[in-house]
């Protein structure tokens, strides 16, 4: 009998794998965790793991993607928010997210993987918003604007994180918001 993604058993098994991975991630760095460790923690066999994920990098990618979506404080895709509110919400979500996944990344390769996933997710989010809430019809322009917003907000969240969170994220984003919205003439 073939199971679908909506099958409760499939969802439970997938959640069990993710929870096991997260439990291991709190004890070990990502490069130290193997598929065998995850399957032992989850008490499943390797075939079951591979029915859900290609490898541990696929698992990491899906966990990050889901966590990022979960951490977005508002359903920005479905609401007609101002650019200021959208930027604030996405930045605050990235700041929260950065704190929860920082321990996944111990090597340059892992950091590059996480950064690639975050950029793809943010670019998709902004592209969807721009297509739905603006009169722009040039798809290439929408992609460039979405990419610019993605890189800007990700870079800002990295800057905030490197400053050891010396100021609250809300205060950080509010201090630079006039320049983001009005350029250098503020």
How is the secondary structure organized here?
Elements: H1 8-25, H2 35-42, H3 46-52, H4 56-71, H5 83-101, H6 108-133, H7 139-162, H8 169-182
Helix pairs in contact: 1-2, 4-5, 4-6, 5-7, 5-8, 6-7
- CA-to-CA gap between the ends? 64 Å
- Classify the beta-strand content into a percent band: under 5%
Shape from CA axes?
globular
- Helical run tally: 8
Helix content: over 70%
Q: What does the largest sheet look like?
A: none
Structural class: mainly alpha
Give the radius of gyration.
Answer: 19 Å
Mean pLDDT: 81
Q: What is the H-and-E element order?
A: HHHHHHHH
Low-pLDDT parts are none
Q: How many DSSP E strands? A: 0
Characterize this entry briefly:
71% of the residues lie in helices and 0% in strands. With 186 residues, the chain is mostly helical.
Q: What can you see in these coordinates?
A:
Helix 1 packs across helix 2 (35-42). The protein has 8 helices and no strands. The protein is 71% helix and 0% strand. It is mainly α and 186 residues long. The longest helix has 26 residues, at 108-133.
